[in-house]
Structures are given as C-alpha cells and as structure tokens.
Write a structure and sequence with these properties.
Elements: H1 10-16, H2 22-102, H3 123-139, H4 147-155, H5 169-184, H6 206-217, H7 222-232, H8 241-252, H9 259-269, H10 272-281, H11 290-301, H12 304-320, H13 353-365, H14 369-378, H15 391-396
Biased composition (Polar residues): 331-350
Protein name: Retrotransposon gag domain-containing protein
Region (Disordered): 315-351
Length: 411
C-alpha cells in the first residue's frame, strides 16, 4: 500500500483538517508585502546615500580646486607687483641716466626708489631691513655720490606704512642723531638739518650708520627667546613629523648649542609615542646627531602598526601605575585574555651589564611585560620581533626571524 506524498502546503493541511486558515494566510501575505515595501525603501535609501556621498565628494574636489586656483592667482599677482616695482625702478634709472648724460654731472645717478619698503623701528623688522639695505648698497653703489647721500637714502625709509612719521621710533632716532650732530658742531639743535656736515661717529659712513641702527633696534634677547621657545615647543596631535621638524629647525637656527643638547631637546619635544616606539625598536636613545634622529623619527612616525602598538603599551602602562621590576597583577576583567600574575626577576647589574641597560630602558617607558604580551595577542603581533604574527610564525610555532632582529627584552 502506497503512502500519500507529504504536502508542504500548510493551508491545504489545515483545510483537510477543516480549519479555517484564511486569516493566517492573509496575515502572512500582508507581512510579505510589508517586508517587500521596506526592502524597496532601504534600497532607495542606499541609492540616495550613495548619490549624496558622490555629490559631497564632488563638492570637496571643487572646493579644493578653487583654493588651489586662488592660491595660484595670489602668487602670480604678488610676482606681478614685484615685477612692476622692479620695472618702475629700472625706468626711473634709465630716465635719469638719459637726463644725466644731457645736463647732469657724470658719475652721479639717482638713488634707488622702493616705495613698498619702510622701517618703523620694530625689532622684528631690523634683520630683514638691514639685509635689504646692505644688498641695495652693494648693487647700487655707483648711484650714490658719497657716504652722506647713502645715509640720507637709508633714513628715507624711516617711517610707518603710508609714509606716516608721527610716533615712529626709527624716525625719532634719526632726529636724535641729527640733534647730536648739530650739537657737536655748535649749531642750533631745535631745527637740526640733515644737510649739515656729518661729524659724529654714527654718521661718518653708511656702514657705521647701519651698525648703530642694529645696536639700537636689534632684539638682543632673540637667541634667548628662541631657546625658551625650543624648550617649550611640543609636537601636536594634528602636526605631521615633517612639519614639526621644519618648525623645530627654524627655531634651532637662532640658538648655538652642541649636538647632544639638540638631540635632547628634540627628544623631549617630539610626540611621546614616537619616543616610546624608538625605545622599543632600539637605537633611538643612542643617536646623538640631530639629522639622523629626525630621519629615524620620520620612519617611526610612518610605521602605523608600530605607533599603534606603542600607544597601547603606553596607555596600558599609565593606567596600571605599576613601577617596573616589581610584581605585576593583571585584572582579568580589563582584558579579553586572562593572564596569571607574573614577576620580573631581578638580576645583578654587576654580573649582567646588558640587563642593566635594558632595565634603564624598561624603567624609562614604564614597561610591563605582562601587559605587553596581552596587547600583542590581542593585535596578533609577535612578542619577539614586534611584527605581524603571520603564517610563517604559525608554521614555525616560534618567531622565524633571526634573534638579532628581536626586540631587546625578547633577546
């Protein structure tokens, strides 16, 4: 006797049992329609989100292009202005040369004209102004009749922007020199003139005049202030190592110190995570050349995996507050892997000098080997070499790299 084939239609089975399942079927059908409608809505939302993302990226690219274009235009405009001033200066020179050839005395030309240059007497302006004056005197030496004309030409820049001399320190200093020069000759000092003969030391030559200007308006604490800034400067989170190196080297240019001091300042100013990773990798503390130390800092900064590991180790060490070389207790609730408490065995510095060096490194970074092992396991990193625990490590069941490339504490 053959059995009836099993049926999968629940409604037919219920009908066979004479049970009304129409409401149940209607509910299932309604829910299926609702699910289908929601799926369509989700798909539409996905499409709209993708369109919004694409539009946002397009707007960012447009904005970036506009910024680059504006910067390029400003650069070209600045270059154009400088070229126009230079052309104007050359035209004035050519005009005066032609006039001097016709009527003026030979060998005496008009002095250079630079209407965009001024010196108000602020210490931060002194070095740049003196550099400009000395360059102009060298390139235009034949355009001055004598030293007095050079001094008067330099003094013509003693004003604030807009040719305002009221309350201008450099102009007041110039007036004071003229008063001193008039008094030395027994002339009235109330209306001392720049056309009187120059007899005082500051006005005997253009170079002596520039020397007196530097002595008066130079910031004599500039080197000391740069040293103070160097001691306070720190690399910020949003500052790349390349950008920080430029800022550090600019401040260092004004300070005279030995190579070891430069490295010490740089080591204290750089990102602490770079410092920690440098100690982990080895060789960081022994570098005493600033250029080499900055080159290593750039390499460490771009080692994403190493920086991540060093950051986690430093964070875990700071949270544990446990001093090195004593018993460390790890709370299993704070970590995904339960690790029994471990002890760092003390060793005699006299019998093991290498252990003494490692101890100083461990103490400096507040290192906890138990925490280090936990973090390595969580991030699938080899505890010995510090690299990713790949398939070579799995097959070898130990670090396959040579022991010379292991981390110091793993050796």
């Amino acid at each position: 006797m053959q059995e009836d084939p099993p049926t999968n239609n629940v409604s037919q089975l219920l009908a066979g049992l004479k049970i009304d399942a129409s409401s149940h079927s209607n509910k299932i059908s309604s829910q299926n329609k609702c699910i289908e409608t929601q799926n369509q809505s989700i798909q539409q939302l996905k499409t709209e989100f993708a369109d919004m993302k694409m539009a946002f990226q397009t707007e960012i690219i447009k904005l970036h292009n506009i910024i680059n274009s504006t910067e390029h235009r400003l650069t070209n405009a600045n270059q154009g202005v400088n070229q126009r001033f230079e052309q104007l200066d050359n035209r004035l020179l050519d005009l005066h040369v032609s006039t001097a050839n016709l009527s003026g005395p030979k060998g005496i030309l008009d002095v250079p004209v630079h209407p965009h240059i001024n010196f108000a007497g602020l210490p931060k302006e002194t070095d740049q102004f003196v550099f400009f004056i000395q360059e102009a005197l060298i390139t235009s030496a034949g355009r001055f009749a004598d030293e007095k004309q050079k001094i008067m030409w330099i003094a013509s820049f003693f004003h604030q922007k807009g040719s305002n001399v009221e309350g201008c320190p450099s102009h007041n200093w110039w007036r004071g020199l003229l008063h001193k020069n008039a008094a030395a000759q027994g002339l009235p000092t109330v209306n001392a003139s720049s056309h009187a003969p120059y007899v005082i030391d500051e006005l005997k030559s253009a170079q002596l005049f520039i020397t007196a200007l530097e002595a008066t308006f130079t910031n004599h604490r500039e080197a000391e202030e740069s040293r103070e800034k160097l001691q306070l400067i720190r690399q910020t989170r949003d500052q790349s190592i390349e950008e920080f190196n430029i800022i550090f080297n600019v401040l260092l240019f004004m300070v005279d110190m030995d190579s070891v001091s430069k490295c010490d300042l740089y080591q204290s100013a750089v990102n602490p995570i770079i410092h920690e990773l440098g100690i982990m990798r080895g060789g960081w503390a022994s570098i005493k050349d600033l250029e080499s130390k900055q080159a290593m800092a750039v390499q460490l900064y771009h080692d994403d995996e190493g920086m991540k590991l060093a950051k986690q180790i430093k964070k875990a060490s700071n949270s544990s507050h446990a001093p090195p070389r004593i018993e460390h207790k790890i709370n299993p609730s704070q970590h995904s892997t339960s690790i029994p408490q471990s002890k760092v065995v003390d060793s005699s510095p006299a019998s093991d000098p290498m252990a003494m060096d490692l101890d100083s490194i461990v103490a400096e970074m507040k290192f906890s080997y138990a925490v280090y092992r936990i973090l390595c396991r969580q991030n699938q990193i080899c505890q010995r070499c510090g690299f990713v625990f790949d398939k070579d490590h799995v097959h070898a069941k130990i670090c396959p790299k040579p022991t010379t490339s292991w981390l110091p504490w793993a050796q």
